[in-house]
Amino acid sequence: MRRVFTASGLGEAQLVAQMLEAAGVRAQVFNDHAAGALGELPATETWPEVWVERDHQLTMARSLIADYESAPDQTVLCQDCGESNPVTFEICWQCRQPLPGRL
Ligand SMILES: [Zn+2]
Fold first, then answer.
1. From ligand 1's centre to the CA of 20, what distance in Å?
2. Most CB atoms within 10 A, among 66, 80, 88, 94?
């Protein structure tokens, strides 16, 4: 198990984990227990982490995250459910339909 990403919020952590899973990388989000305490803790005090389960997938995971971080404001809207996805995604993290404009 290796940590590959520290997110600014649970949503981002889940997005990154979904991105990794979509690419075949086994990933888990930790520190997400804080989501159950919303209302007690300021959201800024939760820094969920994304961990890769298998060390041999670490390089791939870091490459995917580097792509994600290099284009954090670019999103593609899913035509099926309307969810926004990072441009590095090939399928929608929400409904798993192929995203428009993908190779
Ligand atoms: Zn969708």
1. 17
2. 88
